Amino acid sequence: MADFNEYSQKGSTLMQQALKKLSEGDIEGFENDRSEANRWFDLFYNSVNSEEGKLTQMYGESRNFGIIYNVIEQNMDNLLETKGGKQIIKGVYDLIKNNKVLNEQFKIYDLFEKANNIDNAKDFVNEAVSVVKKYNKHQIKENNEKLIRFIKRNKLDEFVEIPDDVENLYEAIEYVILNKKTINNVNEFVKAQNTITEYVEKVNKENINENKTNNETLYNNFDNKLKEEEKKLDENLNEEEKRLIESFTNPKNNTKKIFNNYRKQTLSKLSETIEKAEESDKEGWKKVYESIKNKTYSEKMSDNIVSCAEMMEICNTIDE
Description:
Layout: H1 4-23, H2 27-49, H3 51-59, H4 65-74, H5 76-79, H6 83-97, H7 100-113, H8 121-130, H9 137-153, H10 164-178, H11 186-209, H12 216-219, H13 222-234, H14 239-249, H15 255-276, H16 279-293, H17 301-319
């Protein structure tokens, strides 16, 4: 897909030419250039408003990991308020942990964005960039879109505010991941490194002023960080609930089918229970049956997880 700016610039240039010709009395030339300018503006409009275009506006052409993860982080407080939300967070951690490309990006972005206790920012960035694993645009885009689909499936708020210096940092990190330094791009590469260095210097200074001398933020092992978070989330989850989360957070699974299977199984057990129940208990079980019968698959994945967890608990209660 051509760059949006290219469409806009060509349209603007042609429209300026058209207006110049109009002022010179060249009506035919004006009409020709105006028509061509409108064609480019139409291309710009259609591209921007396509699904691909909307994703590019929100996350960048290569689906910038920093922006994506920032969206998740800024939704974190709300997610932690509910059991379903906590399960979504666990799904995100599992997805990043088990995906090599996402895992590597997380470490790189985390390394630069949360720099702490750095003696020489320039040397630090130079050395770090020299060992950054390179990926091509297709690999980055393909894997980062898995996180975007996760965001959309769970209806997280995508319209978050990211400070300009942080967004510039994300773009610079993306550049050094996607590009190997050559004689042809040395100027752009150095510019990206300088942007990262300036940010690291700023954050490092802020951390020193706030007496943050703990190296853990910078040097922590990614797997240990995940294990620490998973431990918090797993405290109130049994094995069945963990399997439930995994089934809903795996992008390969048909989640609607999973939901309907839970619903079907629960209604079947409730029917048997109502049939065998004492008359005094039937009314209560019938209300539970109607409640489950009225449940429908939601576009918001956390609602489905919570509903299925409830149905699973009903089935376990019946089986006891």
